[in-house]
Amino acid sequence: MERLQKVIAHAGIASRRKAEEYILAGRVKVNGQVIQQLGTQVSEKDQIEVDNVPIYQEEPVYYLFYKPRGVISAVSDDKNRKVVIDYFPNVTKRIYPVGRLDYDTSGLLLLTNDGNFSQKLTHPKYEVDKVYVAKVKGKAENKQLLPLTRGIRHEGVKMAPAKFNILSNDAKSQTSIVELTIHEGKNHQVKNMLQAVGLPVQKLKREKYGHLTLAGLRPGEYRELNKKEVSQLLELAKKVKKK
């Protein structure tokens, strides 16, 4: 089930905000009945019309994208900066990012037109592991990073416990490479966590999402997920659902 305005937006009829206006104006029908209530849930079996014209509900698609640095995790940008959708010129379906990566962060990003899939992977009640590798300023030590395993508070925001692994230290440049595994998706979370323990991030890459990796891809490239991979992700989210 998915909200009616999202289905209309995903079908490419209008933006979600415009779709809400259509609903309130009585221009949308579901199974022949005019619907004017926002948030109405519909399924793939429901017949939806806008201005008496049936809309086509797209088949769901799922992509794994290697996002380069300097790209916005969005479908458009009011400052005309490059966005992830620019890398999918041959995909005609209305896809959008599942969550986001910062402008200057590279790595694994999922895109889809399946709202239920996106909801399951981004909602706080689900805990799908995401693995990041960060180049940080300073010599990282276990005792310094240990507080992250218990969960820390940064600027009043509590962050869930994380796992860490120090991959290398460079005495000459006074930098370190740290791997961090988290399951939350708070804004600038990895950067804030490492900053909180005195290790400012200089470069950041997301290398793993659940069981998925960037194997075989270069920055700016993507591939479609197969059914097994999609099922595994959904099953993973289901297993770690909070009770």
From TrEMBL:
Domain of life: Bacteria
Enzyme class: isomerase
Keyword field: Isomerase, RNA-binding
InterPro entries associated with the record: PsdUridine_s_RsuA/RluB/E/F_cat (IPR042092), PsdUridine_synth_cat_dom_sf (IPR020103), PsdUridine_synth_RsuA/RluA (IPR006145), PsdUridine_synth_RsuA/RluB/E/F (IPR000748), PsdUridine_synth_RsuA/RluB_CS (IPR018496), RsuA_PseudoU_synthase (IPR050343), S4_RNA-bd (IPR002942), S4_RNA-bd_sf (IPR036986)
Ranges that cross the membrane: none
Boundaries of every RNA-binding S4 domain copy: 2-65
E.C. numbers: 5.4.99.-
Stored CDD domains: PseudoU_synth_RsuA_like, S4
SUPFAM superfamilies for the chain: Alpha-L RNA-binding motif, Pseudouridine synthase
Pfam hit, one: PseudoU_synth_2
GO molecular function ontology, one term from the record: isomerase activity
Keyword Nucleus applies: no
Similarity comment text for this entry: Belongs to the pseudouridine synthase RsuA family.
PANTHER family: PSEUDOURIDINE SYNTHASE FAMILY PROTEIN-RELATED (PTHR47683), RNA-BINDING S4 DOMAIN-CONTAINING PROTEIN (PTHR47683:SF2)
Protein name per the record: Pseudouridine synthase
Originating species: Enterococcus lemanii
